[in-house]
Write a structure and sequence with these properties.
731 residues; alpha+beta; Beta-galactosidase, Chain A, domain 5; TIM Barrel; Immunoglobulin-like; 3 domains; 10-stranded antiparallel beta sheet; 8-stranded parallel beta sheet; 11 helices; binds (2R,3S,4R,5S)-2-(hydroxymethyl)piperidine-3,4,5-triol; Alpha-galactosidase; signal; Glyco_hydro_36; Glyco_hydro_36_N; glycosidase
Length: 731
């Protein structure tokens, strides 16, 4: 809901440097159900942020909020600018920096007008128009508010009608301002198979920057998702937390600056690194969106808001179905043929999955893809391995009773490939330099429309020839080394136009194939962001599928991404029993990457039953609200539960994460999210064949009040390393 009002307070004086609201100031309140972002526009049309936090019940009181939180002097009037322009009076990190057509390196941005309108059911779009008083240069700020989910999506467009080109040096998506006593940033970092390690650090005066310059596979070291807790370190159910994430699959920069007034400034957007953008007169540049949610009740609420928003508004079929699958990557690597594969289809059927996913290694003839050194780009079936082609495999799988899906890495090229031989100018590489390879491969130049057509054609041809193909795993294993395009007239547009080119291809594919399930993979979790997740039904969090490691990885992704989109496969990584690995994989979209024929009788029986159980309970895991109960970082166990919207069903997972003597869930764990007035029964799921559970007495009921006040001990310990419980309303 948006409210604009002018206020006439009894203030005697006003200047641009004064923090208080003054007569004639206007306030633009950008609100969701619980949150408000309030912009103040003064008499000189300077737009500043005066509030980001809980929505006030009396909107007229936004005018009482002191600007800059009244801590002292702002020498510029810009510390809390809605979009800090560089070059004139700014002293801090800008949101935008430009050089005008006449060489003037400064920008001033004043409020022109704003409007708000409905952008769908429960969605409001507020648009704030700003312009430079001296130059025909405009910035428009967009704030899309998702009312029920408390999520704000923010981006900007930049346009001018100067006589010649303008250079954009920096062009952020969002600029926020948050006053508090202290700030604790949780950011995530890692590498291949070590994704999403959290670090919580206090922010002190000055800048802290999260960024990537990797181009593709951009999140390999650091994803564009973070938490900022105000006043105290982030807690699960208490305290103020802002969860933010940039919807962009390329280079990004998120800068946190504690200013001289000890307020937090935040600038998030495309990384200005090597990305000066030449904007022609009359053209518009649109930044990617920055998404955030503010919670006054800890990071648990923030996660649930993002999950609900993502399922409803972002991820394709976020409220729909997903297919369980058997993947052959770890079962065969590159070593397979038709016979082996058709046997695996039967294994998949026996196991009880919906789909078989053929991974890397099925293509290339002149340079067969028998290892990771050749063949990328030559997307024709290898005639030795697959003499009857993909159509035959699709039919074979379907006649076995499961669907067939396939792995692709369409953005990449092997130096040993026919594609490279035919189109060397389609490859990102530098003149006069040796080629550097990441996983023995190079990146195609997606800023080139011809390359975009080629990449689109890979999927389109495949779908045209095999219309019942049921799934695509879209991989991306290399970062951008040798960042140079032979055909792009603006070399410094490459990083930006690569991602735009990728999105153009994906847009076209989604128009033609709106329902095709697609997995976003990037050598593990090198590309997990809500820019790409506009197109993909699910993502691959990590190649690390060790059950224990995976608890931590999934735990951290769960801050931002919902279970329905999180692909978890049971594999042979790790030393844990299959029950443990299956229980862990069930906390999301379940799949397998094992040799089914090597399972012993009990393991197979367990897996078959687990898949049936999953079919019965998946709706609660996928669409329910996630409550993290016990963190693996602070005790012997990790515990979390998904609760249905009606609060009549919950699936509760607990794992032993410590190997110390007598480690375990020593005491009851308090549940969350239930209805205190309802009564529930508790029953154990995924009980291993030949063992008995003591939690199977469905005649005993517990009130939600009891379970959330006293709790229940799932008795996870060295003998019961993972426990899955179903909590059901007793009617
Ligand atoms: C990296 C992916 O993360 C793996 O799952 C697998 O598909 C390999 N690439 C294949 O090369």
């Amino acid at each position: 809901m948006i409210r604009l009002f002018s206020l006439f307070l009894t203030l005697s004086c006003f200047s641009i440097l004064t923090a208080m609201s003054a007569p004639g100031d206007r306030h633009i309140a950008i609100e969701t159900r619980r949150t408000a972002l309030v912009i103040r526009v003064d008499k000189d049309q300077n737009p500043t942020i005066v509030h980001l936090g809980q929505r006030l019940t009396r909107p007229d009181e936004y005018a009482r909020i002191p600007g800059n939180s009244k801590r002292g002097e702002d020498y510029t009037g810009l510390y809390n600018s809605v979009y800090t322009p560089a070059g004139s009076r700014n002293l801090l990190e800008p949101a935008i920096q430009v050089t005008h057509a006449d060489g003037n390196p400064s920008l001033d941005l004043r409020y022109v007008r704003h409007e708000s309108k409905s952008a769908g059911d429960g969605v409001v779009l507020t648009t704030v128009y700003l312009k430079d008083p001296q130059y025909p240069f405009d910035v428009t700020l967009y704030y899309k508010t998702y009312q029920d989910d408390d999520v704000i999506e923010q981006w900007s467009t930049i346009r001018h009608t100067e006589k010649k080109n303008v250079t954009l040096h920096k062009y952020a998506s969002a600029n926020l301002y948050i006053p508090a006593q202290n700030y604790y940033l949780t950011h995530f970092h890692g590498d291949w198979a070590r994704e999403m390690n959290p670090s919580e650090v206090p922010l002190t005066e000055g800048l802290k920057v999260l960024d990537t310059k990797l181009g593709t596979r951009a999140d390999l070291f650091q994803p564009p998702s973070f938490l900022v807790a105000l006043n105290q370190p982030a807690q699960e159910d208490q305290g103020e937390v802002l969860a933010g994430t940039l919807a962009w699959s390329g280079n990004y920069q998120i800068a946190f600056e504690v200013d001289p007034l000890h307020n937090l400034r935040l600038m998030a957007g495309i990384n200005p690194y090597a990305s000066a953008y030449t904007l022609a007169p009359g053209k518009e540049f649109t930044t990617p969106a920055f998404l955030f949610t503010y919670s006054a009740t800890g990071k648990g609420t923030a996660s649930r808001s993002l999950h609900r928003w993502a399922r409803k508004f972002r991820i394709p079929q976020g409220q729909g179905n997903r297919l369980t699958l058997l993947n052959n990557w770890e079962a065969t690597y590159f070593d397979f043929n038709e016979e082996k594969l058709t046997a695996l289809f039967k294994d998949g059927r026996k196991l009880g999955v919906d789909l078989f996913l053929l991974d890397d290694g099925w293509f290339g003839n002149k340079y067969p893809r028998n290892d990771d050194r050749a063949g990328l780009g030559d997307w024709q079936e290898n005639v030795k391995k697959l003499p009857h082609g993909l159509g035959y495999l699709v039919n074979q799988a379907e006649s076995t009773g499961i669907k067939f899906g396939i792995w692709l890495e369409p953005e990449m090229v092997s130096p040993k490939s026919e594609l490279y031989e035919k189109h060397p100018d389609w490859v990102l590489k530098l003149p006069n330099r040796q080629e550097y390879y990441f996983r023995n491969q190079l990146v195609l130049d997606l800023s080139n429309p011809k390359v975009q057509d080629f990449v689109y054609g890979i999927v389109d041809d495949m779908m045209t020839k095999n219309p019942t193909l049921g799934y695509i795993k879209w991989d991306c294993n290399a970062v951008i080394y040798n960042a140079f395009s032979a055909t792009n007239p603006n070399p410094s547009h490459l990083y930006v136009e690569y991602v735009q080119g990728l999105y153009t291809v994906l847009d076209r594919l989604r128009v033609k194939y709106p329902k095709l399930p697609m997995m976003l993979c990037s050598g593990g979790g090198g590309r997990v962001d809500y820019g790409a997740l506009r197109y993909f039904t699910e993502f691959w969090p990590s190649d690390n599928t060790d059950g224990l490691e995976r608890i931590f990885i999934q735990w951290n992704y769960s801050n931002f991404f919902p279970a329905i989109a999180t692909c978890n496969h049971v594999t042979d990584w790790g030393k844990q029993p299959i029950k443990f690995r299956t229980d862990v994989a069930m906390m999301g979209k379940l799949g397998y990457d094992i040799v089914v024929s090597k399972l012993d009788e009990k393991e197979l029986q367990f897996s078959q039953e687990a898949l049936k159980t999953y079919e019965r309970v998946k709706e609660v895991i996928w669409q329910g609200d996630l409550y993290r109960l016990a963190s693996p970082y602070s005790g012997d166990v990790a515990s979390l539960m998904y609760v249905s919207e009606a609060r009549d069903r919950a699936i509760w997972f607990t794992y032993l994460t410590s190997s110390r003597y007598r480690a375990g869930s020593q005491a009851p764990i308090r549940l969350k999210g239930l209805d205190p007035a309802k009564n529930y029964t508790i029953r154990e799921l995924n009980v291993y064949p030949g063992t008995k559970s003591f939690i199977n007495d469905t005649s005993t009921t517990f009130s939600g009040n009891y379970l959330m006040t006293v709790g229940f001990n799932p008795n996870a310990d060295a003998n019961r390393t993972s426990v899955v419980l179903e909590v059901t309303e007793a009617k």
